[in-house]
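Reopening this one. Same input as before:
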Amino acid sequence: MSITVLRGGPGREAGAAAPDTHDGLSVWPRSARPGPDGDVSVGGVSLTEAADRFGTPVYVLDEREVRDRCRTYRTAFPEADIVYAAKAFLCRAMARWVREEGLGLDVCSAGELALAVTTGFPPERIVLHGNAKSPEDLRTALRLGVGRIVVDSTSEIARLAAITPEGTRQKVMVRVVPGIAAGGHAKIRTGTEDQKFGLSITDGSAQHAVARILGQPHLELVGLHCHIGSQVASFEPYVAAVRRMTGLLARVRDQHGVTLPQLDIGGGHAIAYRPGEDSLDVGVLAGRVRAELVDGCARAQLPVPRLTLEPGRAIAGPAGVAVYRVLSVKRTGNHVFVAVDGGMSDNPRPALYGVRYAPRLIGRRPAAAPRLVTVVGRHCEAGDILADEVALPGDVHPGDLLAVPAAGAYHLSMASGYNLVGRPPVVAVSEGIARVLVRRESLDDMSRRDVGL
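Same output, byte for byte:
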Protein backbone atom coordinates (compact mmCIF):
# COMPACT_ATOMS: atom_id res chain seq x y z
CA MET A 1 0.00 0.00 0.00
CA SER A 2 1.45 3.36 -1.00
CA ILE A 3 0.90 6.58 0.91
CA THR A 4 1.42 9.90 -0.82
CA VAL A 5 0.82 13.41 0.43
CA LEU A 6 -0.73 15.50 -2.32
CA ARG A 7 -1.34 19.13 -1.52
CA GLY A 8 -4.65 20.74 -2.34
CA GLY A 9 -7.32 22.67 -0.55
CA PRO A 10 -8.03 21.84 3.10
CA GLY A 11 -10.24 18.86 3.88
CA ARG A 12 -13.80 19.56 4.99
CA GLU A 13 -14.22 19.72 8.74
CA ALA A 14 -17.21 18.10 10.39
CA GLY A 15 -20.19 20.39 10.03
CA ALA A 16 -18.66 22.47 7.26
CA ALA A 17 -20.98 23.74 4.56
CA ALA A 18 -21.45 21.79 1.36
CA PRO A 19 -19.86 23.19 -1.82
CA ASP A 20 -21.66 26.08 -3.46
CA THR A 21 -24.02 24.70 -6.09
CA HIS A 22 -23.00 27.58 -8.36
CA ASP A 23 -19.61 25.90 -8.69
CA GLY A 24 -21.35 22.86 -10.16
CA LEU A 25 -20.17 20.72 -7.24
CA SER A 26 -23.52 19.93 -5.63
CA VAL A 27 -23.25 16.21 -6.45
CA TRP A 28 -19.58 15.96 -5.51
CA PRO A 29 -18.18 14.92 -2.11
CA ARG A 30 -18.78 17.68 0.39
CA SER A 31 -15.04 18.23 0.73
CA ALA A 32 -14.75 19.16 -2.98
CA ARG A 33 -13.28 22.60 -3.56
CA PRO A 34 -12.59 24.38 -6.87
CA GLY A 35 -9.12 25.80 -7.37
CA PRO A 36 -8.08 29.01 -9.14
CA ASP A 37 -6.46 27.04 -11.98
CA GLY A 38 -9.52 24.98 -12.84
CA ASP A 39 -8.48 22.09 -10.64
CA VAL A 40 -10.72 20.52 -7.99
CA SER A 41 -9.54 19.07 -4.69
CA VAL A 42 -11.34 16.31 -2.80
CA GLY A 43 -10.42 15.49 0.77
CA GLY A 44 -7.71 18.12 0.51
CA VAL A 45 -6.10 16.32 -2.46
CA SER A 46 -5.73 17.83 -5.93
CA LEU A 47 -7.39 15.60 -8.51
CA THR A 48 -4.90 16.72 -11.14
CA GLU A 49 -2.00 15.68 -8.96
CA ALA A 50 -3.75 12.41 -8.11
CA ALA A 51 -4.16 11.67 -11.82
CA ASP A 52 -0.49 12.43 -12.48
CA ARG A 53 0.64 10.31 -9.53
CA PHE A 54 -1.62 7.27 -9.90
CA GLY A 55 -2.47 7.39 -13.60
CA THR A 56 -5.89 7.33 -15.24
CA PRO A 57 -8.53 6.13 -15.09
CA VAL A 58 -8.53 6.37 -11.31
CA TYR A 59 -11.26 6.29 -8.68
CA VAL A 60 -10.81 8.80 -5.88
CA LEU A 61 -12.77 7.93 -2.73
CA ASP A 62 -13.35 10.45 0.06
CA GLU A 63 -13.05 8.59 3.37
CA ARG A 64 -14.67 11.38 5.37
CA GLU A 65 -17.68 11.38 3.05
CA VAL A 66 -18.15 7.64 3.56
CA ARG A 67 -17.91 7.96 7.33
CA ASP A 68 -20.22 10.99 7.47
CA ARG A 69 -22.87 9.16 5.46
CA CYS A 70 -22.63 6.14 7.76
CA ARG A 71 -23.17 8.49 10.72
CA THR A 72 -26.15 10.12 9.02
CA TYR A 73 -27.90 6.76 8.93
CA ARG A 74 -26.96 5.93 12.50
CA THR A 75 -28.34 9.27 13.65
CA ALA A 76 -31.55 9.01 11.64
CA PHE A 77 -32.21 5.40 12.69
CA PRO A 78 -30.65 5.09 16.18
CA GLU A 79 -32.63 1.97 17.11
CA ALA A 80 -32.19 0.14 13.79
CA ASP A 81 -29.51 -2.11 12.34
CA ILE A 82 -27.82 -0.36 9.41
CA VAL A 83 -26.01 -2.83 7.17
CA TYR A 84 -23.93 -1.52 4.29
CA ALA A 85 -24.72 -3.22 0.95
CA ALA A 86 -21.29 -4.44 -0.10
CA LYS A 87 -22.34 -4.99 -3.72
CA ALA A 88 -22.15 -1.22 -4.22
CA PHE A 89 -18.41 -1.24 -3.54
CA LEU A 90 -16.28 -3.39 -1.28
CA CYS A 91 -12.62 -3.48 -0.39
CA ARG A 92 -10.86 -4.17 2.89
CA ALA A 93 -10.64 -0.49 3.83
CA MET A 94 -14.33 0.05 3.07
CA ALA A 95 -15.25 -2.89 5.29
CA ARG A 96 -13.14 -1.41 8.08
CA TRP A 97 -14.65 2.06 7.73
CA VAL A 98 -18.25 0.87 7.96
CA ARG A 99 -17.41 -1.46 10.85
CA GLU A 100 -15.76 1.38 12.77
CA GLU A 101 -18.86 3.53 12.15
CA GLY A 102 -21.10 0.89 13.72
CA LEU A 103 -22.68 -0.58 10.59
CA GLY A 104 -23.19 -4.20 9.67
CA LEU A 105 -22.56 -5.64 6.22
CA ASP A 106 -24.83 -7.11 3.55
CA VAL A 107 -23.02 -9.55 1.23
CA CYS A 108 -24.15 -11.60 -1.77
CA SER A 109 -21.41 -14.20 -2.19
CA ALA A 110 -18.79 -16.28 -0.45
CA GLY A 111 -16.19 -13.94 -1.96
CA GLU A 112 -17.63 -10.78 -0.42
CA LEU A 113 -18.13 -12.62 2.85
CA ALA A 114 -14.59 -13.99 3.00
CA LEU A 115 -13.03 -10.61 2.19
CA ALA A 116 -15.01 -8.94 4.95
CA VAL A 117 -14.12 -11.54 7.55
CA THR A 118 -10.39 -11.27 6.73
CA THR A 119 -10.57 -7.63 7.85
CA GLY A 120 -11.90 -8.69 11.25
CA PHE A 121 -15.52 -7.85 10.45
CA PRO A 122 -17.72 -9.63 13.03
CA PRO A 123 -19.62 -12.33 11.10
CA GLU A 124 -22.63 -11.99 13.40
CA ARG A 125 -23.10 -8.49 11.94
CA ILE A 126 -23.20 -9.82 8.37
CA VAL A 127 -26.32 -10.64 6.33
CA LEU A 128 -26.10 -12.98 3.33
CA HIS A 129 -28.39 -12.26 0.36
CA GLY A 130 -28.87 -13.64 -3.12
CA ASN A 131 -31.64 -15.07 -5.26
CA ALA A 132 -29.49 -18.06 -6.26
CA LYS A 133 -26.95 -18.76 -3.55
CA SER A 134 -24.46 -21.46 -4.46
CA PRO A 135 -23.71 -24.39 -2.14
CA GLU A 136 -20.34 -22.74 -1.50
CA ASP A 137 -22.05 -19.48 -0.50
CA LEU A 138 -24.22 -21.30 2.04
CA ARG A 139 -21.41 -23.49 3.40
CA THR A 140 -19.13 -20.49 3.83
CA ALA A 141 -21.88 -18.54 5.61
CA LEU A 142 -22.50 -21.40 8.03
CA ARG A 143 -18.79 -22.03 8.60
CA LEU A 144 -18.05 -18.40 9.36
CA GLY A 145 -21.20 -17.86 11.42
CA VAL A 146 -23.05 -15.08 9.60
CA GLY A 147 -25.77 -13.40 11.61
CA ARG A 148 -28.63 -13.86 9.15
CA ILE A 149 -29.29 -15.57 5.83
CA VAL A 150 -32.10 -14.17 3.69
CA VAL A 151 -34.02 -17.05 2.12
CA ASP A 152 -35.07 -16.27 -1.45
CA SER A 153 -36.69 -19.53 -2.61
CA THR A 154 -38.36 -22.60 -1.14
CA SER A 155 -35.66 -24.90 -2.52
CA GLU A 156 -33.09 -22.95 -0.52
CA ILE A 157 -34.88 -23.85 2.71
CA ALA A 158 -34.25 -27.59 2.39
CA ARG A 159 -30.73 -27.06 1.06
CA LEU A 160 -29.78 -24.82 3.97
CA ALA A 161 -31.43 -27.02 6.59
CA ALA A 162 -29.59 -30.08 5.24
CA ILE A 163 -26.12 -28.58 5.67
CA THR A 164 -26.65 -26.74 8.96
CA PRO A 165 -24.48 -28.52 11.57
CA GLU A 166 -26.22 -30.72 14.11
CA GLY A 167 -26.96 -28.96 17.36
CA THR A 168 -27.03 -25.47 15.79
CA ARG A 169 -29.74 -23.19 14.44
CA GLN A 170 -29.11 -20.69 11.67
CA LYS A 171 -31.04 -17.43 11.84
CA VAL A 172 -32.91 -16.73 8.61
CA MET A 173 -35.32 -14.20 7.12
CA VAL A 174 -37.75 -14.62 4.23
CA ARG A 175 -37.41 -12.23 1.32
CA VAL A 176 -40.92 -11.09 0.48
CA VAL A 177 -42.20 -9.49 -2.72
CA PRO A 178 -44.48 -6.74 -1.42
CA GLY A 179 -45.92 -5.90 -4.84
CA ILE A 180 -44.62 -2.33 -4.99
CA ALA A 181 -43.10 -0.78 -8.11
CA ALA A 182 -40.28 1.63 -7.27
CA GLY A 183 -36.89 2.48 -8.70
CA GLY A 184 -35.13 4.54 -11.32
CA HIS A 185 -35.20 1.92 -14.11
CA ALA A 186 -37.18 -1.20 -14.98
CA LYS A 187 -34.07 -3.37 -14.48
CA ILE A 188 -33.66 -2.29 -10.85
CA ARG A 189 -37.28 -2.54 -9.67
CA THR A 190 -37.26 -5.57 -7.41
CA GLY A 191 -40.44 -5.23 -5.37
CA THR A 192 -42.91 -6.28 -8.06
CA GLU A 193 -44.32 -9.62 -9.18
CA ASP A 194 -42.82 -11.56 -12.10
CA GLN A 195 -39.15 -10.95 -11.41
CA LYS A 196 -36.47 -13.19 -9.99
CA PHE A 197 -36.25 -11.94 -6.40
CA GLY A 198 -38.18 -13.04 -3.36
CA LEU A 199 -41.43 -14.82 -2.57
CA SER A 200 -44.82 -13.32 -3.30
CA ILE A 201 -47.45 -12.36 -0.76
CA THR A 202 -50.09 -12.39 -3.51
CA ASP A 203 -49.71 -16.03 -4.58
CA GLY A 204 -48.97 -17.29 -1.07
CA SER A 205 -45.33 -18.25 -1.71
CA ALA A 206 -44.07 -16.10 1.16
CA GLN A 207 -46.56 -17.62 3.62
CA HIS A 208 -45.63 -21.12 2.43
CA ALA A 209 -41.92 -20.40 2.99
CA VAL A 210 -42.63 -19.17 6.50
CA ALA A 211 -44.45 -22.40 7.33
CA ARG A 212 -41.64 -24.51 5.84
CA ILE A 213 -38.95 -22.73 7.84
CA LEU A 214 -40.91 -22.99 11.08
CA GLY A 215 -40.94 -26.74 10.55
CA GLN A 216 -37.15 -26.98 10.28
CA PRO A 217 -35.42 -27.62 13.62
CA HIS A 218 -32.07 -26.29 12.35
CA LEU A 219 -33.46 -22.97 11.12
CA GLU A 220 -34.66 -20.06 13.24
CA LEU A 221 -36.99 -17.64 11.49
CA VAL A 222 -36.24 -14.21 12.96
CA GLY A 223 -38.04 -11.89 10.56
CA LEU A 224 -39.14 -10.77 7.12
CA HIS A 225 -37.18 -8.95 4.44
CA CYS A 226 -38.07 -6.93 1.37
CA HIS A 227 -36.25 -4.76 -1.16
CA ILE A 228 -38.43 -2.66 -3.43
CA GLY A 229 -35.85 -1.35 -5.92
CA SER A 230 -32.92 1.01 -6.43
CA GLN A 231 -32.64 4.75 -6.97
CA VAL A 232 -35.88 5.30 -5.05
CA ALA A 233 -36.13 9.04 -4.39
CA SER A 234 -39.42 9.13 -2.47
CA PHE A 235 -40.33 7.83 0.99
CA GLU A 236 -43.87 6.78 -0.02
CA PRO A 237 -42.93 3.36 -1.48
CA TYR A 238 -41.07 2.48 1.73
CA VAL A 239 -44.07 3.46 3.83
CA ALA A 240 -46.29 1.29 1.64
CA ALA A 241 -43.84 -1.61 1.97
CA VAL A 242 -43.79 -1.28 5.76
CA ARG A 243 -47.59 -1.33 5.79
CA ARG A 244 -47.75 -4.55 3.78
CA MET A 245 -44.94 -6.22 5.69
CA THR A 246 -46.59 -5.34 9.01
CA GLY A 247 -49.74 -6.98 7.75
CA LEU A 248 -47.79 -10.14 6.92
CA LEU A 249 -46.16 -10.13 10.37
CA ALA A 250 -49.66 -10.07 11.85
CA ARG A 251 -50.77 -12.98 9.67
CA VAL A 252 -47.74 -15.02 10.71
CA ARG A 253 -48.64 -14.36 14.34
CA ASP A 254 -52.26 -15.32 13.79
CA GLN A 255 -51.56 -18.48 11.76
CA HIS A 256 -48.53 -19.83 13.59
CA GLY A 257 -48.53 -18.17 16.99
CA VAL A 258 -45.07 -16.75 16.26
CA THR A 259 -44.16 -13.09 16.72
CA LEU A 260 -41.17 -12.29 14.50
CA PRO A 261 -38.78 -9.77 16.08
CA GLN A 262 -37.13 -8.28 12.97
CA LEU A 263 -38.13 -6.45 9.78
CA ASP A 264 -35.62 -5.62 7.04
CA ILE A 265 -36.84 -3.09 4.45
CA GLY A 266 -33.72 -3.18 2.26
CA GLY A 267 -32.06 -0.18 0.68
CA GLY A 268 -32.15 1.36 -2.78
CA HIS A 269 -32.01 4.97 -1.59
CA ALA A 270 -31.51 7.39 -4.47
CA ILE A 271 -28.57 9.73 -4.91
CA ALA A 272 -28.18 12.59 -7.39
CA TYR A 273 -25.80 11.97 -10.27
CA ARG A 274 -26.28 15.42 -11.82
CA PRO A 275 -27.11 18.82 -10.32
CA GLY A 276 -30.84 19.24 -9.87
CA GLU A 277 -31.65 15.55 -9.55
CA ASP A 278 -33.50 14.24 -6.51
CA SER A 279 -31.98 12.16 -3.74
CA LEU A 280 -33.74 10.47 -0.85
CA ASP A 281 -33.84 12.50 2.37
CA VAL A 282 -32.78 9.99 5.04
CA GLY A 283 -34.18 12.07 7.90
CA VAL A 284 -37.62 12.30 6.30
CA LEU A 285 -37.50 8.59 5.47
CA ALA A 286 -36.72 7.74 9.08
CA GLY A 287 -39.61 9.77 10.45
CA ARG A 288 -42.20 8.42 8.01
CA VAL A 289 -41.08 4.78 8.26
CA ARG A 290 -40.96 4.89 12.04
CA ALA A 291 -44.43 6.42 12.25
CA GLU A 292 -45.95 3.83 9.90
CA LEU A 293 -44.26 0.94 11.70
CA VAL A 294 -45.39 2.09 15.14
CA ASP A 295 -48.95 2.81 14.00
CA GLY A 296 -49.26 -0.42 12.03
CA CYS A 297 -48.00 -2.54 14.90
CA ALA A 298 -50.37 -0.79 17.31
CA ARG A 299 -53.32 -1.52 15.02
CA ALA A 300 -52.28 -5.18 14.73
CA GLN A 301 -51.42 -5.41 18.44
CA LEU A 302 -47.86 -6.40 17.60
CA PRO A 303 -44.64 -5.39 19.35
CA VAL A 304 -42.57 -3.13 17.12
CA PRO A 305 -39.90 -5.27 15.42
CA ARG A 306 -36.27 -4.21 15.19
CA LEU A 307 -35.74 -2.51 11.85
CA THR A 308 -32.89 -3.19 9.42
CA LEU A 309 -31.90 -1.01 6.45
CA GLU A 310 -29.36 -1.78 3.74
CA PRO A 311 -27.97 1.42 2.16
CA GLY A 312 -25.14 0.91 -0.32
CA ARG A 313 -25.15 3.47 -3.12
CA ALA A 314 -26.25 6.22 -0.70
CA ILE A 315 -23.07 5.69 1.33
CA ALA A 316 -20.46 4.93 -1.32
CA GLY A 317 -21.79 6.66 -4.44
CA PRO A 318 -21.39 10.35 -3.58
CA ALA A 319 -17.97 9.68 -2.02
CA GLY A 320 -16.34 8.67 -5.29
CA VAL A 321 -14.98 10.60 -8.28
CA ALA A 322 -13.69 8.92 -11.44
CA VAL A 323 -10.91 10.75 -13.30
CA TYR A 324 -10.20 10.07 -16.98
CA ARG A 325 -7.79 11.48 -19.54
CA VAL A 326 -9.07 12.55 -22.95
CA LEU A 327 -7.58 10.52 -25.82
CA SER A 328 -9.32 12.06 -28.83
CA VAL A 329 -11.93 14.60 -29.91
CA LYS A 330 -13.70 14.28 -33.23
CA ARG A 331 -16.82 15.43 -35.01
CA THR A 332 -19.00 12.86 -36.78
CA GLY A 333 -21.98 14.38 -38.52
CA ASN A 334 -23.63 16.66 -35.98
CA HIS A 335 -22.01 15.01 -32.99
CA VAL A 336 -18.77 15.79 -31.17
CA PHE A 337 -17.28 12.74 -29.48
CA VAL A 338 -14.80 13.09 -26.64
CA ALA A 339 -13.10 9.73 -26.10
CA VAL A 340 -11.43 8.93 -22.77
CA ASP A 341 -9.11 6.19 -21.55
CA GLY A 342 -11.84 4.25 -19.72
CA GLY A 343 -15.39 3.33 -20.55
CA MET A 344 -17.87 0.52 -20.10
CA SER A 345 -15.23 -1.78 -18.60
CA ASP A 346 -15.03 0.47 -15.54
CA ASN A 347 -18.58 1.90 -15.68
CA PRO A 348 -21.22 -0.21 -17.44
CA ARG A 349 -24.14 1.66 -15.88
CA PRO A 350 -24.89 4.03 -18.79
CA ALA A 351 -25.04 1.05 -21.15
CA LEU A 352 -27.16 -0.99 -18.72
CA TYR A 353 -29.54 1.64 -17.39
CA GLY A 354 -29.08 4.78 -19.47
CA VAL A 355 -27.63 6.58 -16.45
CA ARG A 356 -26.52 10.17 -17.08
CA TYR A 357 -23.50 11.79 -15.43
CA ALA A 358 -22.06 15.30 -15.22
CA PRO A 359 -18.36 15.19 -16.21
CA ARG A 360 -16.23 18.25 -15.51
CA LEU A 361 -13.02 19.48 -17.13
CA ILE A 362 -10.32 19.83 -14.46
CA GLY A 363 -6.74 21.00 -14.40
CA ARG A 364 -7.02 24.16 -16.51
CA ARG A 365 -9.28 27.09 -17.22
CA PRO A 366 -11.14 26.72 -20.53
CA ALA A 367 -10.79 29.41 -23.18
CA ALA A 368 -13.94 28.53 -25.11
CA ALA A 369 -17.66 28.49 -24.38
CA PRO A 370 -19.35 25.19 -23.57
CA ARG A 371 -20.81 22.99 -26.31
CA LEU A 372 -22.74 19.74 -26.22
CA VAL A 373 -20.58 16.65 -26.62
CA THR A 374 -20.85 12.92 -26.01
CA VAL A 375 -18.19 11.44 -23.77
CA VAL A 376 -17.38 7.93 -24.97
CA GLY A 377 -15.08 5.15 -23.87
CA ARG A 378 -12.31 3.27 -25.61
CA HIS A 379 -14.13 -0.02 -26.12
CA CYS A 380 -15.36 -1.66 -29.32
CA GLU A 381 -19.06 -1.02 -28.72
CA ALA A 382 -21.27 1.73 -30.05
CA GLY A 383 -22.99 1.70 -26.66
CA ASP A 384 -19.75 2.51 -24.84
CA ILE A 385 -20.97 5.95 -23.76
CA LEU A 386 -20.13 7.50 -20.39
CA ALA A 387 -22.09 10.76 -20.74
CA ASP A 388 -24.41 11.62 -23.61
CA GLU A 389 -25.03 15.20 -24.74
CA VAL A 390 -23.27 17.01 -21.90
CA ALA A 391 -21.82 20.51 -21.88
CA LEU A 392 -18.02 20.69 -21.92
CA PRO A 393 -15.73 23.54 -22.99
CA GLY A 394 -15.44 23.88 -26.74
CA ASP A 395 -11.65 23.68 -26.54
CA VAL A 396 -11.47 20.29 -24.80
CA HIS A 397 -8.59 18.38 -26.35
CA PRO A 398 -6.48 15.23 -25.97
CA GLY A 399 -4.54 15.23 -22.73
CA ASP A 400 -7.26 17.04 -20.77
CA LEU A 401 -8.66 15.50 -17.60
CA LEU A 402 -12.35 14.86 -17.03
CA ALA A 403 -13.72 14.12 -13.57
CA VAL A 404 -17.03 12.29 -13.10
CA PRO A 405 -18.67 12.65 -9.66
CA ALA A 406 -21.01 10.19 -7.91
CA ALA A 407 -18.75 7.34 -9.04
CA GLY A 408 -18.30 5.47 -5.77
CA ALA A 409 -20.99 2.80 -6.25
CA TYR A 410 -21.52 0.15 -8.94
CA HIS A 411 -18.47 1.23 -10.92
CA LEU A 412 -15.52 -0.89 -9.86
CA SER A 413 -17.84 -3.52 -8.37
CA MET A 414 -19.38 -4.04 -11.85
CA ALA A 415 -16.15 -3.53 -13.82
CA SER A 416 -15.12 -6.15 -16.37
CA GLY A 417 -12.07 -7.39 -18.22
CA TYR A 418 -13.35 -6.24 -21.61
CA ASN A 419 -10.54 -5.65 -24.13
CA LEU A 420 -8.08 -6.53 -21.32
CA VAL A 421 -7.50 -2.90 -20.43
CA GLY A 422 -7.31 -3.61 -16.69
CA ARG A 423 -9.51 -2.26 -13.91
CA PRO A 424 -8.60 1.13 -12.39
CA PRO A 425 -7.18 1.62 -8.91
CA VAL A 426 -9.03 3.08 -5.95
CA VAL A 427 -7.30 5.87 -4.07
CA ALA A 428 -8.60 7.04 -0.71
CA VAL A 429 -8.23 10.72 0.18
CA SER A 430 -8.50 12.31 3.60
CA GLU A 431 -7.02 15.45 5.15
CA GLY A 432 -4.65 16.04 2.25
CA ILE A 433 -3.32 12.48 2.12
CA ALA A 434 -3.91 10.00 -0.72
CA ARG A 435 -3.32 6.27 -0.41
CA VAL A 436 -4.00 3.31 -2.67
CA LEU A 437 -6.74 0.98 -1.44
CA VAL A 438 -7.01 -1.19 -4.55
CA ARG A 439 -4.13 -1.20 -7.02
CA ARG A 440 -4.52 -1.01 -10.78
CA GLU A 441 -5.05 -4.37 -12.47
CA SER A 442 -2.02 -5.10 -14.63
CA LEU A 443 -1.50 -7.14 -17.78
CA ASP A 444 0.46 -9.57 -15.63
CA ASP A 445 -2.56 -10.01 -13.34
CA MET A 446 -4.74 -10.90 -16.29
CA SER A 447 -2.12 -13.11 -17.96
CA ARG A 448 -1.71 -15.27 -14.85
CA ARG A 449 -5.29 -16.48 -15.18
CA ASP A 450 -4.73 -17.67 -18.75
CA VAL A 451 -3.23 -21.17 -18.48
CA GLY A 452 -3.98 -22.33 -22.01
CA LEU A 453 -0.34 -22.85 -23.14
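So the earlier flakiness isn't reproducible anymore. For the record, DSSP finds twelve helices and 22 strands in the chain.
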